[in-house]
Amino acid sequence: MTKKLGLFAVSLAVLGSLTLSNASMAADFSVAVVDVPAVVNASAQVQALKKEQQVKAQEIVKFIEKARKDVASISDAKKKQAAEEKYNKEFAAKKEKMDAEYAKKLQALDASISEQITAKAKADGYNVVLSKNVVLYGGTDITEQLVKIIK
After folding, report:
1. pLDDT at 26
2. What is the pLDDT of residue 19?
3. In three state form, how does the secondary structure of 18-72 look?
4. How many angstroms separate the CA atoms of 107 and 125, rounded?
5. How far is CA 11 from CA 1, 6, 15, in A?
6. Burial zone of 93 (CB within 10 Å; 0-12 exposed, 13-18 middle, 19+ buried)
7. pTM to 2 decimals?
8. Which of 19, 25, 33, 52 meets the CB 3.0–4.6 Å disulfide criterion with 139?
């Protein structure tokens, strides 16, 4: 019986120390939240990329209009079919190139913004940064600070 009581006392002591250490860890644990879309939209680089993409899209629209006019002016059915196929291939190649370049630049911007968020969080001593749209309550919102940095 004394052995069981001693084991129980040791168990309580271990449990108590674990609880206290978890409480002290919780006191040192800080969470930041970020409105990622707001930070991304505030980026001058992202805005420049959007404008660049719009210009390229306009170029493709002009290409399509020219292709339609050229195809419409051809009266021979076989030549018309060949011209349509040629323009379709050119269009697909242009669009694929445009999309690939955009994705590559967007990925680089995403990495840059993520690095800046990480650097800010580390500098301010946050343990975790969560997207604001997944947090119902809590955390310190660092969005405005990041918007100022990323501009």
Report:
1. 52
2. 44
3. HHHHHHHHHHHCCEEEECHHHHHHHCHHHHHHHHHHHHHHHHHHHHHHHHHHHHH
4. 27
5. 15, 9, 6
6. exposed
7. 0.66
8. 33
Radius of gyration of the chain (CA): 30
Question: Which of the 8 DSSP states describes residue 129?
Answer: E
Q: How far is Cα of residue 9 from the mean position of the Cα atoms in its chain? A: 52
What 8-state DSSP symbol labels residue 142? -
Other Cβ atoms less than 10 A from the Cβ of 11: the count is: 10
Per-residue confidence (pLDDT) for residue 130, from 0 to 100:
92
Question: Are 43 and 150 spatial neighbours (Cβ–Cβ below 8 Å)?
Answer: yes
pLDDT of residue 150: 84
Give the residue extent of every domain in the chain.
Answer: 2-150
* CB of 42 closer than 8 Å to CB of 151: yes
Q: What are the 10-residue block averages of pLDDT along the chain, 151 residues in total?
A: 42 42 59 91 90 93 91 88 92 93 92 92 92 89 89 80
For residue 150, the one-letter residue type is: I
First to last CA, the chain: 70
